[in-house]
Design brief:
CATH class of the largest domain: Mainly Beta
Radius of gyration: 20 Å
Number of domains: 2
Order of helices and strands: EHEHEHEEEEEEEHEEEEEEEH
CATH architecture of the largest domain: Sandwich
Strand content: 35-45%
Distance between the termini: 44 Å
Shape: elongated
Largest sheet: 6 strands, antiparallel
């Protein structure tokens, strides 16, 4: 039986042309009646789709019409119903970022890839790092620091020389960005249930921003991060092109 599909696409000319073709071929159910969301674009657009629809609980099947497409399946017009019917689900558990700013405001945001802290000026950031209420690094001097999910470990985390994490490993990667002190600290792999706290030291002189995927908060004082247990998303992948295999294979790229 054909599932009710709701199509979304990035703003590129190629993706918009594919959107029109897919709607003509398969129809386009209203989002409130859909069973599966089909996203046409690249990884950036997939992240936008996950954030936009993460309260609906619908699985998302992506097709690559962008630059990278690590979170996407190959694009083809035919046999979409059959591909979705045999697709394998991958559960993504986002990180929840809670921020306190210099102005006294509180901001909460979610990240499917990573939460990152970055210096806002030429001066290095000074950050205290605590895990489950216990201080682990009294003062990290760096350009920044990030906490990555397994799904995001091949993105910014890998560029910052962090480890690639297998899906289902129930761990998170904490990776410093250009660390200066302590010189020999290169990050940590944490159980996914860990409550992480970052305190910005001397935040008036050394301002720092915090970003959950693409959502940025500036002039922060403190950030706490934990993995969500409730707000999960299911990504659908073709069996021969699943995300777990791609993350595993990424470790052998040279």
């Amino acid at each position: 039986m054909r599932q009710r599909l709701h199509f979304v696409a990035s703003k590129t000319e190629e993706a918009q042309a594919a959107l029109a073709l897919m709607r003509e071929r398969y129809g386009d159910a209203p989002i409130d009646e859909a069973e599966v969301i089909v996203a046409l674009g690249g990884d950036g657009f997939m992240l936008q789709t996950l954030h936009r629809h993460n309260t609906r609980g619908l699985p998302v099947y992506g097709m690559k019409l962008g630059t990278v497409g690590f979170l996407m399946n190959q694009y083809q017009v035919d046999t979409l119903d059959e591909r979705i019917a045999r697709a394998q689900p991958t559960v993504l558990r986002p990180l929840v970022m809670e921020v306190q700013t210099e102005s006294g405001s509180s901001v909460t945001a979610t990240a499917f890839n990573e939460v990152s802290l970055l210096r806002q000026t030429k001066q290095a950031a000074h950050v205290r790092v605590s895990l489950n209420g216990a201080v682990k690094l009294e003062e990290l001097v760096c350009d920044g620091i990030l906490l990555s999910s397994p799904a995001g470990s091949t993105a910014y985390n890998l560029s910052a020389h962090g480890p690639i994490l297998p899906l289902g490993s129930s761990v998170l990667a904490m990776t410093p960005i250009s660390p200066f002190r302590p010189r020999r600290w290169r990050g940590a792999i944490l159980p996914s249930a860990t409550q992480v706290r970052f305190e910005v030291l001397d935040h008036y002189k050394r301002p720092v921003s915090a970003t959950a995927d693409s959502y940025e908060v500036r002039d922060i004082v403190e950030v706490t991060v934990h993995e969500s247990r409730e707000r999960v998303m299911n990504l659908l992948f073709d069996p021969e092109h699943n995300l777990e295999d791609r993350i595993l294979n990424e470790q052998f790229e040279v």
